[in-house]
């Protein structure tokens, strides 16, 4: 293999594209200024983009008032972040008592820790799943108080802000997801009664808006129970969200079940595995992997839909934002309130979608 | 044929009497009568759609028969779940498309049934898996996932997975027809070794060289019926039925 072939460097030089086709300038020529109307569009949108960004920076930073008192904003044209600086605890925990705020903070830490462990392959085990399923207990104990732990009770009427949003979302996901899996399995059950019940439930729920379900949960639920039993408002909202989203999650899981090769269940049956063993070890692990992206999409929709609980008199993050603008010191700071709440929602949803991409990539590289 | 303990043969392992099956209105299996004795190797061939797969799939109840009796190693297949479980423990099956579990490693695939169906402790199941993977020549791939193996390797894993239940009967449904030609031999070699070791086997295959060499009995199916059964020598040299002759001439001269 030592026959003198042509000099590889000369070859490379020959093959290099003309200079004006490569690099940033080449890219811009190809994508932005290829024709006269491309150029026109580029200039128009460039100008628009510049105005928006410049406006945002001017409003949000350059001319903004920082600090914690209304004085900081006196005479400024821009955003008044002093409003957030003063009221941010309200956004995070609502009317929750001052001296007990470490409790929701600890609960938040717990959720974040579980989330991180879920991303890490070595800790993603059956134990972690059990931890997630049990997580609502310590979280509710921390936030609501518990006699055994010596934590004073905090009435759920005082819960609010981001804390309430996350609480509703975590409970909705942790309980809605397994319920959704059960419904999806029921929908393809061989037993007609179970199948009919699952289909009926799913189609019923999917046919009504969440607001309706929340209203029903808050007004009608007490009617179904013996008088005296009056679950509090937050619990009713949790039940409503869980029941509602379980139906959507069931449909997502069903998509994954349909994507499963038919031979998988046959192979498992031929080995003598029972229905439940096949479901637990063969069907669900594969089906749930397929549906990670649409499932996380559903989780994100759930998180955002928790804002609808304002309808039944709860003050979640968005509800608090609205309330804060009614504070006599900060009247009319609507834009700041919604921008701030929007940023928090965005951070939460973006982290979830990033986490989902990570999980997805992880599984893609493993099983081909 | 060099089989161990030839005189131990003879016990009835599979008994099908007047078995009929329909898919809706379509009569797939018509009055099937078949006896397979211990350590026998039976090869089934026949044109596409003749019901070969359906026939062997009734033996471990992946398909239900609607008429007639089907007794596997003394257990009658009825709607009784207990009986179906018993039979499935004793009958291993290898599929055309391998059907390995893609989310489990090779070892995980082989260990699954021993752990959950036979309730072996994990370390025993793992040792058993390693032994079987060595036997099919794939031990060095134990940590890989099925998607990372070639077709021939996957099919050998599938055989090891079926053997891990220590079945008394093995069913093969065209185990080599999804494979590239150069991988067929490695799978047939494993099957040949199993047959030599005295496993009772029913193989649906069109590998006539393999059949001639390993089979004790050939079965030709057409239109849901068993048309002809004979020892391979007679079956290939002078088949009785015209349909068999036609089929063999087609399959041997392509
Ligand atoms: N689940 C089913 N429902 C309805 N018809 C079926 C089903 N499975 C198989 N059949 C039909 O039954 C007939 C026999 O099928 P079977 O798979 O047993 O044939 P085969 O002999 O194995 O053919 P091949 O060589 O193509 O695998 C075919 O006509 C097929 O279309
Ligand atoms: Mg077939």
Write the layout of secondary structure elements.
The complex is a heterodimer of chains A (368) and B (254).
Chain A lengths: L7 H8 L7 H9 L4 H27 L19 H12 L8 H18 L6 H9 L1 H9 L16 H27 L4 H15 L3 H15 L8 H26 L3 H9 L4 H16 L1 H14 L9 E2 H8 L9 H33 L2
Helix pairs in contact in A: 4-8, 4-15, 5-7, 8-9, 8-11, 8-15, 9-11, 10-11, 11-13, 11-14, 12-13, 14-16, 15-16
Chain B lengths: L11 E12 L2 E12 L3 E5 L6 H8 L7 E6 L2 E2 L4 H10 E4 L11 H11 L5 H14 L15 H13 L5 E5 L7 H16 L3 E5 L3 H7 L2 E6 L2 E6 L1 H6 L4 H11 L2
Parallel strand pairs in B: 3-8, 3-9, 6-7, 7-8
Antiparallel strand pairs in B: 1-2, 1-4, 4-5, 9-10
Helix pairs in contact in B: 3-4, 3-5, 4-5, 5-6
The structure holds adenosine-5'-triphosphate and magnesium ion.
The tally of domains of chain A stands at: 2
**Compute the gyration radius of chain A: what is it?**
27 Å
**Largest sheet geometry of chain A:** none
- The helix fraction of chain A, in percent, is 55-70%
The tally of helices of chain B reads 9
Helix % of chain B is 25-40%
Strand order within the widest beta sheet of chain B: 6-7-8-3-9-10
Description:
The complex is a heterodimer of chains A (368) and B (254). With 368 residues, chain A is mainly alpha-helical. Chain A folds into 2 domains: 46 residues; 286 residues, MetI-like (MetI-like fold, Orthogonal Bundle). Chain A is 69% helix and 1% strand. Chain A is built from 16 helices and 1 strand. Chain B has a 6-stranded mixed β-sheet with strand order 6-7-8-3-9-10, with helices on both faces. In chain B, strands 2-1-4-5 form a 4-stranded antiparallel β-sheet, with helices on one face. With 254 residues, chain B is an alpha/beta fold. Chains A and B meet through helix 12 and helix 13 of A and helix 2, strand 6 and helix 3 of B. The complex binds adenosine-5'-triphosphate and magnesium ion. Magnesium ion binds next to helix 1 of chain B.
